[in-house]
Design a protein that fits this description.
By secondary structure, this protein is α+β, with helices and mostly antiparallel strands. The chain has one domain (5-200): L,D-transpeptidase catalytic domain-like (Beta Barrel). The chain is built from five helices and nine strands, in the order αααβββββββαβαβ. It has helices at residues 5-21, 26-29, 37-49, 161-167, 181-190; strands at 59-64, 74-78, 84-87, 89-90, 118-128, 131-138, 152-155, 177-179, 196-200. A nine-stranded mixed sheet has the order 3-2-1-9-5-6-7-8-4. It is globular and about 40 Å long. Mean pLDDT is 89; it is low at 1-23.
Amino acid sequence: MGFSRRWLLGAALTGLASAVARPAFTHIAGIAGGVAPGLLRRALDALELHGDLIAHRDFLGIVDFSLPSRSPRFHLLNLTDGSVRSHWVAHGRGSDPAHTGWLERFSNEPRSNATSAGAYRTDSSYLGAHGHSIRLEGLDLTNSNAAARAIVVHGAWYVSEDMIGHWGMLGRSEGCFAISHASLDEVLTRLGPGRLIYAAKA
Protein backbone atom coordinates (compact mmCIF):
# COMPACT_ATOMS: atom_id res chain seq x y z
CA MET A 1 0.00 0.00 0.00
CA GLY A 2 1.42 3.39 -0.98
CA PHE A 3 1.11 6.65 0.93
CA SER A 4 1.33 10.14 -0.50
CA ARG A 5 3.91 12.59 0.76
CA ARG A 6 1.06 14.84 1.92
CA TRP A 7 -0.48 12.01 3.99
CA LEU A 8 2.87 11.09 5.54
CA LEU A 9 3.60 14.72 6.38
CA GLY A 10 0.16 15.11 7.94
CA ALA A 11 0.62 11.95 10.00
CA ALA A 12 4.03 13.09 11.16
CA LEU A 13 2.71 16.49 12.21
CA THR A 14 -0.22 14.89 14.03
CA GLY A 15 2.15 12.63 15.92
CA LEU A 16 4.40 15.56 16.75
CA ALA A 17 1.45 17.61 18.00
CA SER A 18 0.37 14.74 20.24
CA ALA A 19 3.88 14.29 21.55
CA VAL A 20 4.09 17.99 22.36
CA ALA A 21 0.63 18.23 23.94
CA ARG A 22 0.67 15.09 26.06
CA PRO A 23 3.82 15.64 28.17
CA ALA A 24 2.30 18.77 29.68
CA PHE A 25 0.00 16.50 31.68
CA THR A 26 2.19 13.44 32.27
CA HIS A 27 3.05 14.64 35.76
CA ILE A 28 -0.67 14.90 36.58
CA ALA A 29 -1.87 11.39 35.76
CA GLY A 30 0.06 9.68 38.53
CA ILE A 31 -0.41 12.14 41.39
CA ALA A 32 -3.94 13.52 41.18
CA GLY A 33 -5.09 11.68 44.28
CA GLY A 34 -8.79 11.02 44.77
CA VAL A 35 -9.67 11.18 41.06
CA ALA A 36 -10.43 7.89 39.29
CA PRO A 37 -7.55 7.36 36.81
CA GLY A 38 -9.78 6.57 33.83
CA LEU A 39 -11.96 9.61 34.46
CA LEU A 40 -8.88 11.79 34.87
CA ARG A 41 -7.52 10.63 31.52
CA ARG A 42 -10.84 11.37 29.80
CA ALA A 43 -10.96 14.83 31.37
CA LEU A 44 -7.43 15.62 30.19
CA ASP A 45 -8.32 14.32 26.72
CA ALA A 46 -11.36 16.63 26.72
CA LEU A 47 -9.10 19.53 27.62
CA GLU A 48 -6.95 18.75 24.58
CA LEU A 49 -9.96 18.22 22.31
CA HIS A 50 -11.55 21.55 23.25
CA GLY A 51 -8.27 23.37 23.80
CA ASP A 52 -9.01 26.18 21.35
CA LEU A 53 -12.07 27.12 23.42
CA ILE A 54 -10.35 27.02 26.81
CA ALA A 55 -8.39 30.16 27.65
CA HIS A 56 -6.88 28.99 30.95
CA ARG A 57 -5.21 25.71 31.88
CA ASP A 58 -4.32 26.31 35.50
CA PHE A 59 -7.30 24.50 37.05
CA LEU A 60 -9.64 21.79 35.79
CA GLY A 61 -12.94 20.69 37.33
CA ILE A 62 -13.70 16.95 37.27
CA VAL A 63 -17.06 15.70 38.55
CA ASP A 64 -17.32 11.96 39.24
CA PHE A 65 -21.00 11.07 39.14
CA SER A 66 -20.29 7.37 39.70
CA LEU A 67 -19.97 8.33 43.39
CA PRO A 68 -23.00 8.95 45.65
CA SER A 69 -23.92 12.52 46.50
CA ARG A 70 -22.67 12.08 50.08
CA SER A 71 -19.10 11.82 48.71
CA PRO A 72 -16.98 14.85 47.78
CA ARG A 73 -17.02 14.26 44.02
CA PHE A 74 -16.40 17.71 42.49
CA HIS A 75 -12.63 17.69 42.15
CA LEU A 76 -10.62 20.88 41.60
CA LEU A 77 -7.40 19.76 39.94
CA ASN A 78 -4.42 22.10 39.98
CA LEU A 79 -2.78 21.42 36.61
CA THR A 80 0.51 22.91 37.79
CA ASP A 81 1.28 20.58 40.68
CA GLY A 82 -1.41 17.87 40.47
CA SER A 83 -2.97 18.72 43.82
CA VAL A 84 -6.71 18.14 44.26
CA ARG A 85 -9.38 19.75 46.41
CA SER A 86 -12.71 17.92 46.48
CA HIS A 87 -16.18 19.30 47.23
CA TRP A 88 -19.76 18.09 47.49
CA VAL A 89 -22.01 18.63 44.48
CA ALA A 90 -25.65 17.74 43.90
CA HIS A 91 -27.03 16.11 40.77
CA GLY A 92 -30.35 16.82 39.08
CA ARG A 93 -33.64 15.41 40.33
CA GLY A 94 -34.31 14.05 36.85
CA SER A 95 -31.15 11.97 37.15
CA ASP A 96 -32.28 10.45 40.47
CA PRO A 97 -36.11 10.41 40.49
CA ALA A 98 -36.32 8.08 43.50
CA HIS A 99 -33.89 10.28 45.45
CA THR A 100 -31.48 7.50 46.35
CA GLY A 101 -28.41 9.73 46.36
CA TRP A 102 -27.04 8.03 43.24
CA LEU A 103 -27.15 9.43 39.73
CA GLU A 104 -29.02 6.91 37.57
CA ARG A 105 -29.07 8.61 34.18
CA PHE A 106 -27.83 11.65 32.30
CA SER A 107 -29.98 13.74 30.01
CA ASN A 108 -29.47 16.72 27.72
CA GLU A 109 -33.18 17.23 27.15
CA PRO A 110 -34.88 20.53 28.05
CA ARG A 111 -37.11 20.35 31.14
CA SER A 112 -35.61 16.98 32.11
CA ASN A 113 -34.21 18.44 35.39
CA ALA A 114 -31.36 16.01 34.84
CA THR A 115 -27.61 16.33 34.93
CA SER A 116 -25.78 16.20 31.60
CA ALA A 117 -22.45 14.49 31.01
CA GLY A 118 -19.57 15.97 29.06
CA ALA A 119 -17.18 18.89 28.86
CA TYR A 120 -18.27 22.39 29.86
CA ARG A 121 -16.58 25.75 29.46
CA THR A 122 -17.05 28.17 32.33
CA ASP A 123 -18.36 31.51 31.14
CA SER A 124 -19.36 34.74 32.90
CA SER A 125 -20.23 34.96 36.57
CA TYR A 126 -23.37 36.74 37.71
CA LEU A 127 -25.55 37.41 40.73
CA GLY A 128 -28.86 35.58 40.37
CA ALA A 129 -31.61 33.77 42.26
CA HIS A 130 -29.02 31.47 43.90
CA GLY A 131 -26.52 34.23 44.63
CA HIS A 132 -23.13 34.26 42.94
CA SER A 133 -23.10 31.74 40.09
CA ILE A 134 -21.20 30.99 36.90
CA ARG A 135 -22.68 30.20 33.51
CA LEU A 136 -21.67 27.07 31.61
CA GLU A 137 -21.45 26.28 27.92
CA GLY A 138 -21.82 22.61 26.95
CA LEU A 139 -19.12 21.58 24.46
CA ASP A 140 -20.32 18.06 23.62
CA LEU A 141 -23.43 16.57 22.01
CA THR A 142 -24.32 15.14 25.43
CA ASN A 143 -24.59 18.60 27.04
CA SER A 144 -25.12 20.95 24.09
CA ASN A 145 -28.32 22.36 25.64
CA ALA A 146 -26.62 23.44 28.86
CA ALA A 147 -26.78 27.19 28.18
CA ALA A 148 -30.39 27.02 26.93
CA ARG A 149 -31.32 25.00 30.03
CA ALA A 150 -29.59 27.57 32.26
CA ILE A 151 -27.26 24.95 33.71
CA VAL A 152 -24.81 26.79 35.99
CA VAL A 153 -22.63 26.34 39.06
CA HIS A 154 -24.30 27.83 42.14
CA GLY A 155 -24.48 27.47 45.88
CA ALA A 156 -27.38 25.65 47.55
CA TRP A 157 -28.64 25.16 51.10
CA TYR A 158 -29.31 21.48 50.41
CA VAL A 159 -25.62 20.79 49.83
CA SER A 160 -24.18 20.63 53.32
CA GLU A 161 -22.76 18.39 56.02
CA ASP A 162 -26.03 18.74 57.94
CA MET A 163 -28.01 17.32 55.01
CA ILE A 164 -25.70 14.33 54.78
CA GLY A 165 -25.81 13.81 58.54
CA HIS A 166 -29.61 13.85 58.60
CA TRP A 167 -30.53 12.16 55.30
CA GLY A 168 -27.35 10.36 54.29
CA MET A 169 -27.33 12.28 50.98
CA LEU A 170 -27.59 15.72 49.47
CA GLY A 171 -30.68 17.32 48.03
CA ARG A 172 -31.13 17.50 44.26
CA SER A 173 -30.85 20.36 41.80
CA GLU A 174 -32.72 20.89 38.54
CA GLY A 175 -29.65 19.86 36.59
CA CYS A 176 -27.21 22.50 37.83
CA PHE A 177 -23.93 21.82 39.60
CA ALA A 178 -25.15 22.88 43.04
CA ILE A 179 -22.37 23.09 45.62
CA SER A 180 -22.19 24.13 49.26
CA HIS A 181 -22.04 27.81 50.13
CA ALA A 182 -18.82 27.03 51.99
CA SER A 183 -17.22 25.82 48.73
CA LEU A 184 -18.60 28.52 46.47
CA ASP A 185 -15.81 31.10 46.71
CA GLU A 186 -13.06 28.57 46.05
CA VAL A 187 -14.85 26.89 43.13
CA LEU A 188 -15.85 30.14 41.43
CA THR A 189 -12.35 31.58 41.88
CA ARG A 190 -10.46 28.50 40.66
CA LEU A 191 -12.88 27.84 37.81
CA GLY A 192 -13.52 31.38 36.66
CA PRO A 193 -14.36 32.14 33.02
CA GLY A 194 -12.50 30.22 30.32
CA ARG A 195 -11.82 26.95 32.14
CA LEU A 196 -13.03 23.37 31.68
CA ILE A 197 -15.31 21.23 33.81
CA TYR A 198 -15.67 17.58 32.82
CA ALA A 199 -18.60 15.60 34.25
CA ALA A 200 -19.14 11.87 33.76
CA LYS A 201 -19.17 8.51 35.48
CA ALA A 202 -15.83 6.83 36.08
